[in-house]
């Protein structure tokens, strides 16, 4: 067979392929094929493979370059593989590029090629094997580049790898991801250059992000983190995501964890493997086929005192190709160099798990009877490395209203997540205590300033200055929303019978601004009749370098206005995000949709009474007539009348101005509200049995499930809930 590929048609002068190919001519040696290929005389039944020797021969053959041009169907349109080291590669114009690959690598490499075609982002320094026509294989460093316009397709550059270059390229490829699964997969792919099958098994504590600080006693639990090549495995074989059988975990851990330092273990043939495993079930679970009869087990060691073993890498190959000492040294060097990447991914996994747990705790639950909510959160990166900056929350307040909160904390990671959790919980506590949205933002502003105080020790190198927050409180009786914003983008309101658009919110510099820039937080009230849709979001949803921020908000308004009143809100929220979120996100994407329902008019009643001595009696008469129309039970009616009497009497005694009485029929009971112009806070004191002062609050406390106070611009409202 002619080992020299046929000449390819010359590419276009504007193609990057020609530039690469012409440059190769200055570096490709023109020596004979035997100088860079395997020894001649290969037997057809025993394909030879190129050995990576400990002392490669010096000369230009240590680094040889080649290039292949592909069209959008991943077929070869041109190539430059004239260097002797590429002899035997059957590159033919018009044939699929994957014909040059071992069958087990085809799915993974095809996925990488199509990914570069779709995104235009290069995939560099992949350690890859190429299949020669005689069955032998060549290890190369492969980079995939998108063709420059106006050309279409891909340019694949190939570097035939010597030992040092192989180790360097493998280490470079392994350290490109913070995902522990991808890191283990990259390590396994690099190890495949020394064998037919490579696997990486990690201590379960490492896989979940926890630390391994000392030598465990007895059995350890190993989980398969990576396995190459990517192919269908027989039933019972351990594949990624599966735990190794307990006996296998024990054997491997004992083999690599010696009394001194962890060491590599080599089982040269199938007889030795079966003798060590001692069970046909374990052989079926761990040995990848009849031909792979030899295995080298290399521990992943993290330097320390004592050293910590994170897991074990296994390289399998045929018994007729035993591992020599130089190859074992190379394997140990590669695994040792890359163990810290595994530990770095473990640390990221632990932080990521903690942040996601906090995110899930803060996600809104059900909206309740008066409002329906749905939320979507997407991190900035596919592996969620940047999770933690944005947050949303919605929760019912004790007095029947509903709070909607969205915020954007500066930065990402655990520091931002901790600040996010603190601000979210503080906002919820203050809103539940009856404070208005602007008052809550004043407290959050002070909190951010304190967190940034270096002397307090709370910042720990992280600053939350410039974080934003928007708080909206929905009243289901008046169908109004009170909203305050600290530097946040304005919410979008879609009324049932009007055009959609952003809510007019006065600009504010944000939380933790300098004292000279601080301004009082305002409250913007607007009507939200039943059927209205309110969208709160963070800037990652609407910011796009190609359009202005106003245009992005306008696109959001148009998309939200297309949501039908009968559409499932959670599905609608996902659709909005899929339509608007940038493909290449630079920030987290957060959306909170709220559909207003409110109370029906026949379920509420409001009376305005003068602050006179007969106000309590007048209130009892009005409430009694209403409860009769509502057909309330006698015991409930008696409790409500007594509560209203005590609250009105207390308002007449300690407050001034007119008194407002409001009664609401909820799904779980009745809500009584009494408003006045006083600013004193009613408190439940330890009064004696015959002490008249505070007796009314003790009565209210015993007859209700909850009661409290909220503040208004003109005074306060004391509310109490009575179960039906």
Shape: elongated
Cα end-to-end separation? 92 Å
Number of helices: 16
Summarize model confidence as the mean pLDDT.
Answer: 78
DSSP strand tally: 25
DSSP strand (E) fraction? 15-25%
**Sheet bearing the most strands, described?**
5 strands, antiparallel
Spatially, the strands of the biggest sheet line up as 2-1-5-4-3
Radius of gyration: 35 Å
Oligomer: single chain
Helix content: 25-40%
Describe the structure.
- It is a single chain.
- With 724 residues, this protein is α+β, with helices and mostly antiparallel strands.
- It is 30% helix and 23% strand.
- The strands form 5 sheets. It has a 5-stranded antiparallel β-sheet with strand order 2-1-5-4-3. It has a 5-stranded antiparallel β-sheet with strand order 7-6-10-9-8.
- A hairpin with a 4-residue loop joins β14 (468-475) and β15.
- α12 (549-561) packs antiparallel against α13 (569-580).
- The protein starts with 15 loop residues before the first helix and ends with a strand.
- Residues 1-17, 23-63, 454-460 and 688-692 have low confidence and may be disordered.
Short description:
The protein is elongated, with a radius of gyration of 35 Å. Residues 1-17, 23-63, 454-460 and 688-692 have low confidence and may be disordered.
List the helices and strands and how they pair.
Blueprint: H1 16-24, E1 63-70, E2 76-80, H2 106-119, E3 123-131, E4 137-146, E5 154-161, H3 163-174, H4 180-191, E6 197-203, H5 204-207, E7 222-228, H6 246-256, E8 265-267, H7 270-277, H8 280-286, E9 294-302, E10 308-317, H9 325-362, E11 371-378, E12 390-396, E13 402-408, H10 414-432, H11 437-451, E14 468-475, E15 480-486, E16 492-494, E17 501-502, E18 524-527, E19 533-537, H12 549-561, H13 569-580, E20 589-596, E21 604-609, H14 615-629, H15 634-654, E22 659-665, E23 669-676, H16 695-703, E24 706-711, E25 716-723
Antiparallel strand pairs: 1-2, 1-5, 3-4, 4-5, 6-7, 6-10, 8-9, 9-10, 11-20, 12-13, 13-14, 14-15, 15-18, 16-17, 16-19, 19-20, 21-22, 22-23, 23-25, 24-25
Helix pairs in contact: 3-4, 3-9, 4-9, 9-10, 10-11, 12-13, 14-15, 15-16
């Amino acid at each position: 067979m002619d080992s020299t590929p046929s000449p390819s048609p010359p590419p276009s002068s504007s193609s990057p392929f020609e530039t690469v190919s012409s440059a190769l001519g200055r570096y490709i040696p023109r020596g004979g094929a035997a100088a860079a290929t395997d020894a001649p005389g290969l037997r057809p039944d025993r394909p030879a493979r190129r050995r990576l020797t400990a002392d490669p021969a010096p000369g230009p053959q240590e680094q040889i370059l080649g290039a292949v041009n592909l069209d959008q169907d991943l077929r070869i349109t041109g190539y430059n593989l004239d260097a002797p080291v590429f002899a035997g590669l059957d590159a033919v114009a018009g044939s699929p590029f994957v014909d040059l690959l071992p069958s087990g690598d085809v799915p993974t490499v095809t996925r990488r090629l199509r990914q570069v075609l779709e995104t235009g982002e290069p995939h560099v320094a992949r350690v890859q094997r190429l299949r020669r026509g005689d069955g032998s294989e060549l290890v190369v460093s492969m980079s995939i580049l998108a063709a420059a316009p106006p050309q279409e397709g891909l340019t694949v550059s190939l570097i035939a790898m010597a030992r040092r270059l192989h180790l360097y390229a493998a280490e470079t490829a392994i350290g490109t991801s913070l995902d522990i699964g991808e890191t283990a997969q990259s390590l396994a792919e690099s190890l495949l250059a020394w064998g037919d099958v490579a696997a990486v098994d990690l201590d379960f504590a490492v896989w979940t992000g926890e630390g391994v600080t000392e030598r465990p006693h007895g059995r350890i639990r190993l989980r398969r983190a990576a396995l190459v090549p990517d192919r269908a495995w027989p039933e019972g074989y351990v594949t990624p995501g599966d735990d190794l059988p307990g006996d296998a975990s024990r054997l491997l851990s004992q083999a690599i964890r010696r009394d001194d330092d962890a060491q590599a273990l080599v089982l040269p043939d199938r007889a030795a493997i079966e003798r060590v495993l001692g069970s046909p079930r374990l052989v079926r679970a761990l040995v990848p086929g009849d031909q792979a009869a030899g295995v080298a087990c290399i521990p992943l060691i993290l330097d320390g005192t004592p050293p910590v073993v994170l897991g074990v890498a296994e390289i399998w190959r045929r018994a007729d190709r035993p591992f020599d000492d130089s190859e074992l040294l190379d394997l140990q060097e590669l695994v040792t160099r890359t163990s810290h990447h595994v530990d770095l991914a473990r640390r990221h996994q632990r932080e990521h798990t903690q942040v996601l747990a906090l995110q899930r705790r803060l996600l809104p639950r059900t909206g309740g009877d008066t409002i329906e909510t749905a939320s979507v959160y997407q991190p900035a990166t596919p592996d969620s490395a940047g999770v933690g900056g944005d947050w949303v929350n919605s929760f019912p307040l004790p007095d029947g209203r509903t709070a909607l909160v969205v915020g954007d904390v500066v930065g990402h990671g655990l520091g931002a997540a901790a600040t996010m959790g603190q601000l979210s919980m503080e906002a919820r506590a203050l809103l539940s205590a009856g404070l208005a949205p602007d008052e809550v933002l004043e407290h959050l502003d002070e909190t951010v300033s304190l967190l940034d105080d270096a002397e307090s020790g709370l910042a720990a190198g992280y600053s939350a200055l410039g974080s934003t927050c928007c708080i909206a409180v929905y009243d289901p009786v008046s169908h109004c929303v009170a909203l305050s914003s600290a530097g946040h983008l304005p919410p979008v309101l879609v009324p049932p019978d009007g055009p959609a658009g952003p809510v007019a919110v006065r600009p504010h510099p944000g939380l933790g601004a300098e004292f000279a820039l601080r301004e009082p937080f305002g409250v913007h009230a607007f009507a939200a009749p039943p059927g209205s849709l309110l969208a709160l979001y963070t800037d990652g949803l609407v910011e796009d370098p190609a359009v202005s921020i106003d245009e992005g908000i306008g696109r959001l308004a148009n998309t939200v206005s297309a949501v039908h009143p009968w559409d499932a809100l959670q599905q609608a929220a996902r659709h909005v995000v899929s339509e608007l979120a940038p493909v290449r996100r630079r920030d987290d994407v957060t959306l909170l949709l709220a559909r207003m329902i409110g109370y029906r008019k026949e379920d509420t009643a409001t009376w305005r009474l003068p602050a006179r001595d007969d106000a309590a009696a007048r209130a009892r008469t009005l409430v009694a007539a209403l409860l009769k129309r509502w057909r309330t039970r006698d015991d409930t009616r008696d409790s409500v009348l007594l509560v209203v009497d005590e609250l009105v009497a207390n308002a007449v005694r300690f407050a001034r101005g007119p008194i407002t009485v409001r009664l609401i029929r909820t799904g779980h009971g009745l809500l009584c509200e009494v408003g006045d112009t006083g600013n004193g806070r009613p408190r439940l004191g330890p009064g004696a049995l015959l002490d008249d002062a505070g007796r009314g609050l003790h009565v209210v406390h015993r007859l209700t499930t909850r009661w409290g106070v909220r503040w208004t611009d003109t005074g306060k409202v004391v509310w109490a809930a009575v179960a039906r």
